[in-house]
């Protein structure tokens, strides 16, 4: 963005693809990451603030 803010957006693979990549374990539940993003904001003194925002379905 013009003010130096960076946004990196991420989402899960579709269930059909992820099911083939990761074998299901008996004692675990795989949640579904609907959306997530890293927001990196530049501050005045050559430092930054990093915020991680997550929207997920724990499916449990």
TrEMBL record:
InterPro entries the UniProt entry points to: START-like_dom_sf
The protein's name in its UniProt record: Uncharacterized protein
Species: Dipteronia dyeriana
Lineage: Eukaryota, Viridiplantae, Streptophyta, Embryophyta, Tracheophyta
